[in-house]
Amino acid sequence: MDVTAVDRSAVSGDTLLHHAAPASKLAATGLLLGAVMAVNDPLVAAGVALSLTGAGAAVGLPLRKMLPLALYPALFALIFAFAAAPGPVTGAVVVLKAVTAALAVVTLMFSTPYPQVFAPIQRVTPQVVGDALLMTYRSLFILAEKFADLTRAVRLRAGLSARQPVRSAQATIRALGGLLLYSLDLSQREYDILYLRGYEGGLRVTTRRSVDHKADTAAVLYAALILAVVLAFRMTPALSGYSWLVTVAGAVDLLTGLSIGRRR
Amino acid sequence: MSHIHIPDGVLPWWLWLSGWIAATVLIGIAADRATRSGSRRAVPLIGAVSALVLVAMSSEIVPIAYHVNLTVIAGVLLGPWLGLIAAFIVVLVLALLGHGGVTVVGLNALVIGTEIALGWALVRTGVRLAGLKRIRPVAAVSTVLTLAVTTTMLVGIVALAGAPATGRETGALDAETLEFRNPLSGGLFSIGLLGGHDHEHAEDEHEGEHAEDEHEGETLAVSRFAAVVYTLGPIGWLLEALVTAAVLGYVGKVRPGLLFGGQGVQGRVGRIGDEHGGR
What we know:
The complex is a heterodimer of chains A (264) and B (279). Chain A contains 11 helices and no strands. Chain A is mainly α and 264 residues long. Chain A folds into 2 domains: 166 residues, no CATH class; 80 residues, no CATH class. In chain A, helix 4 packs parallel to helix 11 and helix 7 runs antiparallel to helix 8. In chain B, helix 1 crosses helix 4 and helix 3 packs antiparallel against helix 4. Chain B contains 7 helices and 4 strands, in the order H-E-E-H-H-H-H-E-E-H-H. In chain B, the strands form 2 sheets. Chain B has a two-stranded antiparallel ribbon. In chain B, strands 3-4 form a two-stranded antiparallel ribbon. With 279 residues, chain B is mainly α. At the A-B interface, helix 3, helix 5, helix 6, helix 8 and helix 9 of A face helix 1, helix 3, helix 6 and helix 7 of B.
């Protein structure tokens, strides 16, 4: 899970979605999550997932970085589906729900800097929780980079080898121990900074406004359309025989999105 | 598999909503305690430890779909209340990275919060009884016990989700059968994926058979889930126990003052943040 790639794309990306207001993107993500919750047909769920991937490709988001993150929950969902779902159809819905929901949130995170995503969360959580959330995300990138450096250093010194699992495990644990001490030193430094700046609670984030109102409208309308399709299939049993049409439409979206993305 | 890797729209709404409500109340209490003890000190500490747990959780051991959690370590460093805030932050960030549903954040915060609190209590008690020199075996045993308890919580949640939709959902009484019935059971967000049936098969069955089979299907789904979790789980518990024991042993050796929120085992060492200046 390369979390640093998320931040790089969110901060330095320049796609249509990056131009939309964070509030619009959050609303669109909410609508998409509503669709994920309501969907109960695997063909409809597959169509939504394909369409979302196509939309990401069309606007020029880094799909190669996004898809591994979006597919990561499928592994756990697969185990859960195998263990708990009563049949293959339900199992397929569980896995597709995981992938589609992950695609929705990953699209949000790849196009929106994290303080902007956390700003509305900060407003509804206690101050210490909202501030700690911002501090966590900041520390996460520092620690992820430090851990990568530590494991690279151990690997270069031949400490990590598939032939010597015990030695590799010992080296990894030492790296984790070192990372723990580093993280506590980091918290100490952050405390010193907060102390010097006279922090008394309440790290404020200024909400960014929209650069392109068309992008706002497009994001919300697209998500609303997806939700409407899912609800139509959910509420009208007569449509269940035609759910393959949603998959086909999703595949067309994907191919179109990929073709638009390549032309950029 | 100590927390729920269940996507959105699988658990019934009343279950994940209850999780959110319970988590909100507990986090409110935890935040109040953290503010009273000084948020300037709590915020960076929670941030650093949450980030550490997130880094550990993002490194997955593929063949058994397990990732190290470091939750017991987080408990030892933060204590139960700050640990609960850290648990909420960790699951929220994970959900925003697509790892676990947004709707199950409340339930996940409760499961991981329990893991942190129980881990803290067991390690603290064990170290008080056996001494800091034996922190490795104490940490290993505490981790296994903690993970066994929270895994059972996880199975309990899935069992609740798979249980028949009755009075627990809305309390609506069916006057004909004198049974509680959920008027929203056919509603938009009552998914019932763990109800024991594939929907296609369910439509073809007679009503009477339907009820019986549904019960059987649910039992099978939950018991199968429990069998898988209790088979794969112990491998993860063992790995987690070894990592926790080794890391806490290392910290206990080089910086014992950092354990148990910087209060030390006997409460004699100063708090974290006081080490380099005592403000």
